[in-house]
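Sat 14:20. Reprocessing the chain from the morning session after the first attempt stalled halfway. Input below, unchanged.
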Amino acid sequence: MPAPVLSKYVQPEVLNQVAHLSFRPRQLVEGNLAGAHKSPRHGFAVEFASHREYVPGDDIKHLDWNVYYRRDKLFIKQYEMETNLTCHLVLDMSASMRYGQGETQKQLYASRLAATLGYLVVQQQDKIALSLFDERIRAVLPPSTAMAQILRLTNLLEHIKPEKKTNMGRVLLELAEQAGRRGIVVILSDFFMNLDELEPALQRLRFDRHEVVLMQIVHHDELTFELPGMVRFVGLEVDEQHLTRPEDIKESYLENFRGFNERLEQISEGNRCERILCDTSRPMSELFADYLQQRSLRRRRW
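Finished this time. Tokens:
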């Protein structure tokens, strides 16, 4: 794949700002390779976790002789295994993500977030997977720890364009059935949908003990509604057009948008999901640095 396609999504100036940061889970994960995260399963590797009584057939090299001398009873040391993380990137490719121009287009900004996050995850020797969806799952990139995964990821992003409506609730339920072991699920979307259909899908992911991160991608226009003059509003996911002065509907729009965000935050908090508001006018290096630093602090308190 040509280098310009890779650099379109993984920008060196952003990596320079965030390369020293990491994307670690806030909970125990499961996996099948040696990695940097604690597993909920006990084995004989890495870090002491607990004791259990010796039974015939146990390897005597794991006996804790200090406990034996104190209690005159044989105990085996158990350890927490370190394992790999699987990060599932789930990217909304519905038509509403086309909003914006140039660097601030929502789909481009979300794709760059996904590619940069994927790079950080692979760099820390964890697995990255990618799913693109609208009304259905459009494409899936199975998990891999290889750096070549980032090339495959950016190639996929380059060739699939936002066109249709979204059906996120159904898609997330379908992806939950395929996700396997618990890990981190990062959903990148504007979440312009019936939020009542989102909550059951998040509940299913949390029931399967995935950590869920909602990266809400919004254009600055959608946050402020600062639009001059007469504007023709053209539906991206509905066949409707309206010509009006934005100032006539601004107050009503902002009130509805605030209500929408409050409901999304309520669902996120109720299901112990992270929600990050991503304004596409904000420099990505700044957004990433702030988020990853804050996440690291929250992880220490988890």
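The longest strand covers residues 75-83.
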